[in-house]
């Protein structure tokens, strides 16, 4: 029962709403980041590696592979072909750059303004708490009388 109460508190606290909002915003933002990465970042990376996309690869080994093709008569012919196995560094760089761009935009567009709003809200709340209502004169007088009686 205690776990159920904790779960209810978690749900009602708003973390689930914040999380779901983040997921929705992230999904909607993916299109913008993808377009930016494909339109601007990948061509700049392609300058280093050549080609329309960043084609930075490291060859590992060649492997013989059987490939089935149809000839002009429509018969299947099996050819043995050397296939180059390679690491796709360009794809990794593209994914890292895309992640960094997404993270930076989410931080500066969503997180930073929200932190500032929370800071302003907390500051206003603390200022409201800091201003104590004035103590009435009769309470002050009674407090002084009490203190004098304690000292005697």
How would you sum up this structure, described in words?
- With 152 residues, the protein is α+β, with helices and mostly antiparallel strands.
- It has one domain (2-53, 92-151): Non-ribosomal Peptide Synthetase Peptidyl Carrier Protein, Chain A.
- The protein has four helices and two strands; from the N terminus they run H-H-E-E-H-H.
- The chain has helices spanning 2-13, 15-49, 89-130, 137-151, and strands spanning 57-70, 76-88.
- Strands 1-2 form a two-stranded antiparallel sheet.
- The relative contact order is 0.09.
Write the layout of secondary structure elements.
Blueprint: H1 2-13, H2 15-49, E1 57-70, E2 76-88, H3 89-130, H4 137-151
Antiparallel strand pairs: 1-2
Helix pairs in contact: 2-3
Structural class: alpha+beta
- SSE pattern: HHEEHH
Q: In which range does the helix fraction lie?
A: 55-70%
What proportion of the residues form beta strands (DSSP E)? Answer: 15-25%
- Secondary-structure arrangement, i.e. CATH architecture: Orthogonal Bundle
Major sheet details: 2 strands, antiparallel
Stated plainly, the CATH topology is called Non-ribosomal Peptide Synthetase Peptidyl Carrier Protein, Chain A
Summarize model confidence as the mean pLDDT.
78
What's the CATH class label?
Mainly Alpha
Strand order of the largest sheet: 1-2
